[in-house]
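Contributing new records

If you add data, match the layout below exactly. Sequence lines come first and carry their own label; structure lines follow with theirs. Keep one chain per record. Anything else will be rejected by the validation script.
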Amino acid sequence: MIDNVLVFKTNVTDSVQVASLAEMLDTTEDIADWNIDFQDCDHILRIVSSGIETHAVIASLTELGFRCEELKE
């Protein structure tokens, strides 16, 4: 069951960086889908999730060397 969509501002800027993120995001059980909007100036990462916590996403991206900040509606 899908509970929520998490939205983050990131500093991910190209397909090489997306590939490094894909390894982590594609293998995380609670993530149903994700995408990055390069057309947006904040390089928005959207995650469709069934329960992953915001802090876990931020910690994982930070560990990979990316900046990640949750955007509130």
